[in-house]
Design brief:
heterodimer, A: 186 residues, alpha+beta, two-stranded antiparallel ribbon, 7 helices, 8 strands, 31% helix, 14% strand, B: 491 residues, alpha/beta, Rossmann fold, 6-stranded parallel beta sheet, 12% strand
Chain lengths: 186, 491
């Protein structure tokens, strides 16, 4: 299943994903300058949380065992069998906010104006979710498990380079590759 | 979400874009693409890093009562940022004015002295605009006094003005008039033929009408002709990339400030001659694109035309006088907005005046010559012979001449307006504010200030409120201009 993956270290907290999400998914004009002048304030389905320097974007994780689907009494919260994403059928939603209370991430918002729950559906009908497409640092990535594994591997590769060149603390039992090559690691 | 648009409407630039792409060189367009997405908060002027408590930002889709750490609300952020830009532009104009011996120092307001945004926003913009207007008027007066107000000059525009068999000296950015004079004298004494061309601010500097190369967005393309032998770097409108790219291409770069006397000018030109000798063996594929350019119009030498315009307006055959200014914006096709605006104004019966980079765009489109295609036949018949549909004043710092022209026709009630479709540098923004403060309705292609309802309505109410002319978004231009016949009927 394709997911929105978060590379936390890359998030600078600029909130571009929030703006883009609100404009793309909740405005009529679909442009930033048009959206700010619309009567209904576009709402974002992604939120940048955390402190300065430790920011990270959070949106629906489309849990394998989604508690929001289990608690929904109206059958509005559903899983798309094709893509595996969880979405709200707004015509069925009664606005009881059970999902809002149950979500462990706080990713479901009550849209009081429409009396329906509001959450990320990974931009089901689009090629790429708006948040991932707009992220300037690449902290949000859209892809399957494999593509994120690649990102992780790349980062581990960087860690290996770091381990290779970094000086070892005195008395350390870890031997650097450089030291092994030179032959003083024996 | 992907948009496809042409990078430039200029055929010469398009030839060189292909060449740059083949060489794997990154130009401003490529850097602009790499910069996407640009920060939405900054686009709306909703973030602030004026002080060290910040940075702060306000969510445009959030609650109304959001405040920065110091307590600014949304309007105060937008208004403060706009004021700072206008004041910055006014300061830039004043500094350029000093080179013409125009004025002593910048007398404009310093809006950031206080953390509080002035209560009367429109009045504060008007004050900064008036300071810019004073600098512009002083530049115009100094230019007229030094070089007279002779008939306009005829030169050429676009990359075809470079000569394969001459030393091409490019004056780039705002080069002081004294340095231009020294370089021209040194060029005349050089041992090889020297061709001086200008771009981005030095148009018709002094009494010599120099050919114009191109405008702001496509400045780097000039280097891809391979025919530039010396780059004289002026101030303000030189992209840092240009200097680096010239150095990488082996083109000597001389700072205009270093050209202080005849000896340094001769040394600079001899660097160009040496570079010319080095490239002599290589062919330079200069795009064979150029248009004639009638330039250097002033209120004095265009008096006959303005008198005719007044009469034509009274007879219902002309709609008024319009200025098309601005720089360019890489988000849009280069030159397209300025040309489209000018053509629609001409079609509706306006005599168009232009200067600076928008002026270069119109000149490249062939509008600054008497037999221009796209001229309004009815208007052309009413105006003197041999008058182009677009009067080219010179560099953007010559915009003060338009204010004098506006003064001449406005007394008779002729409508005067100014359109700035795209901005890059703040001094163009200050020019727009100066025009509005002087009573010329301004239509500006700005985003942030018009996205905020309170700021937009304050500017629409006139700068300053009640007395000055309105400062409106570009979208309002279509409604504001009326064909002459209908306007005459309404009168």
């Amino acid at each position: 299943m394709k997911r929105i993956w978060v590379d936390r270290d890359k998030c600078l907290g600029c909130r571009t994903c929030e703006l883009r999400c609100a404009v793309e998914r909740d405005s009529v004009s679909k442009t930033l300058l048009g959206a700010v002048r619309e009567e209904h304030r576009p709402a974002a389905r992604v939120m940048v949380s955390g402190r300065t320097g430790e920011a990270f974007p959070i949106q629906c994780r489309h849990c394998e065992d989604a508690v929001c689907i289990r608690v929904c009494p109206a059958g509005a919260m559903q899983r798309n069998p094709e893509t595996g994403t969880v979405f709200v059928d707004r015509s069925r939603c009664r606005g009881c906010w059970m999902c809002v209370m149950a979500c462990p991430f706080g990713a479901v918002q009550p849209a009081a104006e429409f009396k329906t729950a509001l959450k990320c559906d990974a931009c089901a009908d689009m090629e790429e979710p708006a948040c991932a497409a707009s992220c300037p640092t690449g902290a949000l990535v859209y892809g399957d498990e494999e593509s994120f594994a690649e990102i992780l591997a790349a980062r581990r590769g960087q860690l290996a380079i770091y381990a290779r060149t970094a000086p070892l603390p005195a008395g350390s039992s870890i031997v650097s590759i450089e030291a092994l090559r030179k032959g003083d690691g024996e | 979400m992907k948009e496809v648009r042409k990078k430039s409407a200029d055929p010469a630039v398009n030839q060189l874009l292909v060449k740059a792409f083949r060489q794997g060189a990154a130009l401003a367009w490529d850097r602009a693409e790499a910069m996407q997405p640009q920060c939405g908060f900054s686009r709306l002027s909703l973030c602030c890093s004026d002080c060290h408590e910040g940075p702060c930002r306000i969510n445009p889709f959030g609650a109304d009562d959001q405040r920065t750490i110091c307590g600014r609300d949304r309007f105060e952020l937008v208004a403060g940022a706009f004021l700072r830009q206008v004041a910055d532009g006014a300061g830039a104009l004043a500094r350029l004015g000093e080179r013409f011996g125009a004025s002593a120092g910048y007398a404009g307001p310093e809006p950031m002295d206080a953390m509080l945004v002035p209560e009367d926003f429109a009045a504060a913009v008007a004050a900064a605009g008036t300071a810019a207007g004073t600098a512009l008027a002083a530049i115009a007066a100094a230019r007229d006094a030094a070089y007279g107000t002779a008939a306009p000059d005829v030169t050429a525009v676009n990359l075809g003005v470079l000569k394969a068999d001459a030393v091409n000296v490019v004056l780039h950015g705002h080069v002081p008039p004294a340095a231009v004079k020294l370089l021209a004298a040194a060029a005349a004494a050089a041992e090889a033929p020297v061709n001086i061309a200008v771009m981005c601010g030095s148009e018709t500097t002094g009494d010599i009408a120099l050919p114009v190369l191109t405008n702001y967005d496509s400045q780097e393309a000039v280097l891809f002709t391979g025919a530039v032998d010396l780059l004289v770097r002026g101030s303000q409108c030189v992209m840092p990339a240009m200097v680096k790219m010239a150095a990488a291409a082996g083109v000597p770069v001389v700072s205009a400030c270093a050209v202080a006397d005849a000896a340094s000018a001769a040394a600079a030109i001899s660097q160009g001659v040496a570079a010319f000798r080095q490239r002599a063996g290589r062919t330079a594929p200069i795009p064979d694109v150029s248009e004639p350019l009638y330039t250097g119009y002033t209120a004095a030498n265009a008096k006959e035309a303005l008198d005719a315009l007044r009469a034509a307006w009274a007879a219902g055959r002309a709609a008024g006088l319009a200025y098309v200014g601005g720089c360019g914006n890489l988000g849009f096709t280069q030159d397209a907005a300025a040309v489209k605006t000018a053509l629609s104004l001409i079609k509706r019966g306006y005599l168009v005046v232009t200067a600076g980079c928008a002026g270069a765009a119109l000149a490249k489109a062939g509008l600054c010559q008497p037999d221009a295609a796209g001229a309004n036949a009815a208007l052309k018949a009413a105006l003197p012979d041999n008058l182009p549909p677009v009067l080219h004043l010179g560099a953007c710092t010559d915009a003060g001449r338009f204010l004098a022209m506006a003064e001449m026709v406005r007394a008779a009630g002729v409508p005067v307006l100014a359109a700035f479709p795209e901005f890059a540098h703040n001094k163009t923004l200050a020019t727009a504010a100066a025009f509005a403060a002087a009573g010329v309705s301004v239509f500006a292609g700005l985003e942030a200030v018009f996205a905020d309802a309170k700021a937009a309505s304050a500017l629409a109410g006139g700068i300053p409120a009640g007395k000055g002319a309105p400062f409106l978004p570009m979208a309002a231009l279509a409604e504001a201009v009326q064909p002459p016949a209908e306007a005459a009927k309404a009168r």
